[in-house]
Design goal:
The chain is of the alpha+beta class and 150 residues long. The chain is built from three helices and six strands; from the N terminus they run ααββαββββ.
């Protein structure tokens, strides 16, 4: 059996990502490398490094959402080299945050980096943040006493 192409892996990725908004981190976990250099920077802040931290952060993120519905992926660019590839996208979805009664629409700016491991494309980094639309300069400032990256 042939290993999937990068395009096929992106299709699988696009099916897996919406599951987080439905409270199910399993399909995204299946895409990740298990090596110690994997990272995740999600909209809830901070950066997880290493599989144990990334797995815990994926579980945490999936508990924040319910009733998710993917509205679409807007691919800005992608690049594939021999053993490394990346995607820059905007993800549009609707979901209900934990404890909320109504769903909201979200747009995330996402960069995903993949690496070929034993012939298969594995996710090694995902950075998603709500800055999919232009932000004010003021939004860059940290509140007094709050360390950057928290």
């Amino acid at each position: 059996m042939l290993a999937p192409s990068f395009e096929e892996e992106v299709d699988r990725y696009h099916l897996a990502v919406p599951e987080i908004t439905r409270g199910n981190p399993g399909p995204v976990k299946d895409l990740y490398s298990r090596l110690d250099d994997v990272t995740l920077a999600n909209p809830f802040g901070g950066i997880a490094r290493g599989w144990a931290q990334v797995e815990a952060r994926l579980d945490q993120a999936s508990r924040q959402f319910q009733d998710g519905e993917m509205l679409g992926f807007e691919t800005i660019t992608s690049y594939t080299a021999r053993d490394t590839a990346y995607l820059v996208e905007t993800e549009h979805f609707r979901a209900r945050l934990e404890g909320a009664s109504l769903t909201e629409e979200f747009a995330l700016r996402v960069t995903s980096v993949f690496r070929r491991e034993e012939g298969y494309w594995k996710l090694v980094h995902r950075h998603a943040d709500p800055a999919a639309r232009p932000q004010s300069r003021r939004s860059l400032a940290q509140p007094a006493g709050e360390p950057a990256g928290r």
